[in-house]
Design goal:
This protein is an alpha+beta fold. The chain folds into 2 domains: 3-155, no CATH class; 161-218, no CATH class. 45% of the residues lie in helices and 17% in strands. It has helices at residues 45-52, 56-65, 73-83, 109-121, 129-138, 142-151, 161-173, 184-187, 189-197, 208-218, and strands at residues 3-6, 15-18, 22-28, 31-36, 41-44, 94-99, 102-108. It has a 7-stranded antiparallel beta sheet.
């Protein structure tokens, strides 16, 4: 599944296509959470709102106001908190995804923590007890690790994205060749690995076994 990264309002976002999809995703107590194919742990906007003890529309407003100049006080505060996180890099705020046929936004765990911290200690409206209690439990890497645990994601067992097509094709051909025959892809696997180690990875536009198979057939 492709993700479009949004930096504008929910209705008319400015988007750029990224090669991201949902690697793992679950719903716990009505909160969607998951991990993207690059390892980013995320909450849905609805989940983030519940974490902060605010209405869903408040999270939509943060998304809409993120790039407005001059910055609104709330956005400025949240960005200041993000800048102090070592794991955060200046990237768009949320990824637009489709979950079970409904478009939603995936909010990275780093962004979620900054927004949660704002509602726990800085916001003047609402009851700050709920976000404060949640922040004490989920500060640091706790939210990140919690999401990984809930979805059953272990990064040590994940295949890097640029090797995934090669791995999938190996899995399809392994043990499927009858006795007395050979598999073109298996025979050129060493070559493909060598290419990959030098930065050339197979994808939908680069499938060398078709070319090799055609040449072998003519031979």
């Amino acid at each position: 599944m492709l993700a479009t990264i949004s930096s504008g309002a929910p209705g008319t976002p400015q988007q750029a296509m990224l090669d991201l999809r949902i690697e793992k995703q679950v719903q716990r107590d009505g909160i969607d959470m998951g991990v993207l194919s690059d390892g980013t742990a995320f909450l849905s906007g609805r989940g983030l709102a519940r974490l902060c003890g605010v209405h869903n529309s408040v999270i939509d407003e943060i998304l809409a106001d993120w790039n407005i100049d001059p910055q609104k006080p709330r956005i400025k505060k949240i960005k200041e908190k993000l800048s102090r996180q070592e794991s955060y890099f200046e990237t768009p705020i949320a990824a637009a995804l489709e979950i079970e046929g409904t478009q939603t936004y995936a909010w990275p765990d780093t962004v979620c923590l900054a927004i949660l911290e704002y509602y726990a200690f800085d916001a003047q409206q609402g009851n700050r007890k709920q976000p404060r209690d949640n922040y004490r439990v989920l500060a640091g890497k706790a939210l990140h690790d919690f999401i990984y645990t809930q979805v059953g994601y272990d990064p040590r067992h994940q295949i890097p994205e640029h090797w995934r097509v090669f791995h999938d094709r190996i899995s399809l051909t392994h043990g499927s060749v009858p006795v007395g025959y050979f598999c073109i892809f298996k025979e050129i696997a060493d070559m493909v690995v060598h290419l990959g180690q030098n930065g050339v990875h197979i994808d939908s536009s680069f499938v060398p076994d078709i070319s090799v198979g055609s040449i072998w057939a003519r031979y």
